[in-house]
Design brief:
The chain is mostly beta strands. It is built from no helices and ten strands.
């Protein structure tokens, strides 16, 4: 089996209402999802009262992955402009279909005044 990885574009998020981050279309050869990751980057100017935390929800019109909710990993932007990045990969075993679409959503735990962005990624196997 071959391993594939795909990720959404970085999308602005920072609200406590659910925001669609994007849709990932799996390869036509996809058989199963084996890993998931998601992270948010808090923009410059985070205060001690703001935390970059949230929940990711994934859904598919093409195959069953519900319920699929997991914590959003957070990356803090340091005052020097550097970021500390090490996304956590969550191992899963979810049967998938070739060319199946996966919609990705993020809900932040608190509204942020900084320019936060988020991405969601899928690791999957296929022929």
């Amino acid at each position: 089996m071959r391993t594939y990885i795909d990720i959404t574009d970085a999308t602005a998020t920072g609200d406590t209402t659910e925001t669609k981050i994007g849709t990932i279309t799996l390869s036509a050869k996809a058989k199963k999802i084996v890993g998931l990751f998601a992270y948010a980057v808090g923009g410059a100017g985070l205060t001690t009262l703001e935390n970059v935390t949230g929940i990711v929800r994934m859904d598919s019109p093409d195959f069953s992955i519900a319920p699929m909710r997991f914590p959003l990993d957070c990356v803090a932007v340091l005052t020097s402009g550097a970021v500390a990045f090490s996304p956590r990969i969550i191992p899963v075993e979810i049967p998938a279909v070739g060319s199946g679409k996966v919609d990705c959503f993020v809900t932040m735990d608190m509204a942020l005044t900084v320019a936060a962005t988020a991405r969601v990624g899928i690791i999957y196997e296929g022929d």
